[in-house]
């Protein structure tokens, strides 16, 4: 019985510090996308420097990696974009869309115009 109590207490103490499964503050109220679902990439960019995320809303990026950009957050001067990293070997990194500073990448290939303004939702900044 003391072991079960200790385990339950340990889990309870760890839950509030975990970012997974919780709502994080919004980075912006609107975003620019290629379509209303933000399902098509706007451009392909190459990372000019490493980026280590501060929390689960962001994705890690290594210098030289290709990033498919799906959205440009609008309210903060286009400081953050949302995209997915493509590693040199397909399948080497899990496909996950996250945010990153636009300053850590350079635009390589425009794919579609970012002409659709979309309101962000809480799910855009939710940590799974």
Automatic annotation (TrEMBL):
Xref: Pfam families: SH3_2 (PF07653)
A GO biological process held by the record: extracellular matrix organization
Signal peptide boundaries: 1-20
Keyword terms, alphabetized: SH3 domain, Signal
SH3 domain: residues covered: 40-110
Record-linked Gene3D superfamilies: SH3 Domains (2.30.30.40)
SUPFAM superfamilies tied to this protein: SH3-domain
Protein name: MIA SH3 domain containing
Organism: Seriola lalandi dorsalis
């Amino acid at each position: 019985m003391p072991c079960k109590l200790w385990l339950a207490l340990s889990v309870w103490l760890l839950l509030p510090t975990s970012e997974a499964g919780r709502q994080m503050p919004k980075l912006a109220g609107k975003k620019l996308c290629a379509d209303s679902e933000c399902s098509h990439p706007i451009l392909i960019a190459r990372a000019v420097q490493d980026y280590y995320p501060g929390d689960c809303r962001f994705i890690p990026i290594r210098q030289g990696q290709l990033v498919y950009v799906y959205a440009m957050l609008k309210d903060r001067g286009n400081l953050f974009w949302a995209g997915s990293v493509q590693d040199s070997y397909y399948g080497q990194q899990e496909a996950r869309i996250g945010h990153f500073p636009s300053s850590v990448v350079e635009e390589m290939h425009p794919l579609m115009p970012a002409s659709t303004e979309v309101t962000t939702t809480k799910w855009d900044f939710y940590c799974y």
